Structures are given as structure tokens and as C-alpha cells.
Amino acid sequence: MYAVIKTGGKQYRVQPGDLLIVEKLEGEPGAAVSFGEVLMLGNGDSVTVGAPLIEGAAVAATLIETRKGEKVKIFKKIRRQGYRRTRGHRQTESVLRVTGITGAGQEAKWDGEVKLVTKAELNARSRNLPFTAPVAAAPVAEAAPAAPKKAPKAAAAPAEAAETPAVTEAAAEAAPKKRAPAKKKTDNAEGGAE
């Protein structure tokens, strides 16, 4: 069973279990969202078309995350005038998992489990990087004990400390001396060039 819904000025064909990216919707991750603007329902060969909407039909979904989408570049140019402007924009979008469709005396549910895994976490996993959620990271940082400070190098290796000054003196003698920059010749305003 599938449905065609309208949200954010666009139409989407959805089935139970689909991952859907729409214009920004209000709500926290894990919240239930319902779409009442169902334009069409289909089940196999039977299709029900609304005029313009189907009465009593609804599509249920779960909000996974609200994020910024891909960057869109806006480039303006007027040729031969030296006018070039580049701007970028990232539209906010909501990611949903469709969990059920009801209407026209039929009902279809999705039996799977909705996992609230964000795109940032998936990107980190694909690169084998550790991922910590920005919200959860702050309390963990406060609870973590302070790392012990390292001891100074002189205290850690007393035998090497005696050899170090001799090595640095020999290196200083072998290093070339820096020369002062050469002075520029200037013309005397009174006497001309010397």
C-alpha cells in the first residue's frame, strides 16, 4: 500500500517503512508526526484519488532528526562588468520514518523498529571515527576525572639532564651566526649622492 501526501508545498509518494526527507517540521527526535493531507491511496491495482483530499486518510511517521541539508551555491555574474557574487545556503530539513498508512477502509503498518541514528553518526561510522552526540558530550566532560599532569622532563630523566647542556652548547657553536640585514644606501637631500 502506498500514499501520496502533501507537506511543505511538495508531494511525496510514501510506503510504510520509507525514509522521508521533508521541509522542517516542529518536534523532538522520536516524536510522532501525522499527515492528514493525503491526495491518493493505492493498493495493488486499486487506486483511490481524492478530490482534492481523501477524507479520513492519514499517514503516520516518526521524526528521526532535524538537520541542515546540502549546501546550495548561488553565483551571480554580469559579464564584462567585474561583478561576481557567491553565496551559499543550507535549508533545514526533517528526516522521517513512515510507520503506517490508514484510509479508504484499509490499513498498512510497518513492523520494523525506528532507530534514531543521525546522518552525522552514520558519516562518523563510515570513516571509523568515534562519535559522541553534541548534547550528550557536555555532561560526560564534567563527570570525567581530570587527567594527571605529566612530570617535567628533567625530573623524568636525571641522567640525560647532565648531557643536555653539553649537547646544546656544541649545537650552538656549530650553528651559523645570523647576520644583521644590510643597510640601504640613501641619497642625502643636501649633498646629493655620496
From TrEMBL:
Keyword check for Ribosomal protein: yes
Keyword vocabulary terms for this entry: Ribonucleoprotein, Ribosomal protein, RNA-binding, rRNA-binding
Biased composition (Low complexity): 142-174
GO biological process, one term: translation
GO cellular component: cytoplasm; ribonucleoprotein complex; ribosome
SUPFAM superfamilies (alphabetical): L21p-like
Subunit structure: Part of the 50S ribosomal subunit. Contacts protein L20.
Family statement drawn from the similarity comment of this UniProt entry: Belongs to the bacterial ribosomal protein bL21 family.
Protein's UniProt name: Large ribosomal subunit protein bL21
Biological classification of the source: Bacteria, Pseudomonadati, Pseudomonadota, Alphaproteobacteria, Caulobacterales
Gene designation per UniProt: rplU
